[in-house]
Amino acid sequence: MYPHERSLVAKNRNRPFAIIGVNSDQDRERVRRVVKQENLTWRSFWNGQQGIRGPIAQAWNVQLWPTVIVIDHEGIIRHRGHGGAEMDQALEIWIAAAEKAADKSVDPSGSGS
């Protein structure tokens, strides 16, 4: 279930990138078992006993699972969808933008100020 997420983590290991998961299973202990069994290396939050109607889904207006939301380095939602090639393209664009912004913020004189 998680091979694509694992490939994204591996591909973007040294880049400004993070995955945050939200699990909609109603059983919290099952969520913990899945996280451990699947060896998930990213943060994964439980959406509560309401499952797909839980507080995180409500706050982020998630209607379908899985939903992917790409948030850039400035905290702006840049893409919302359900994965696939379109999401991968959006990720590449916004990760590159974050890298460019980080490069601009580095003092070229090396003085650190």
Q: What are the segments in which pLDDT stays under 50 over at least 5 consecutive residues? A: none
Number-wise, the strands total 4
Kindly provide the radius of gyration, computed on alpha-carbon positions and rounded to a whole number of angstroms: 17 Å
| SS field, number of helical segments | 4
Distance between the termini: 46 Å
**Beta-strand percent range:** 15-25%
What's the CATH architecture?
3-Layer(aba) Sandwich
Strand order of the largest sheet: 1-2
Average predicted local confidence, pLDDT: 90
What structural category characterises the helix and strand content? alpha+beta
CATH class: Alpha Beta
Following the backbone from N to C, one meets helices and strands in this order, namely: HEHEHEEH
Under CATH, the topology can be stated as Glutaredoxin
Shape: globular
| Annotated CATH homologous superfamily | Glutaredoxin
Tally of distinct domains = 1
State the helical fraction: 25-40%
* Main sheet characteristics: 2 strands, parallel
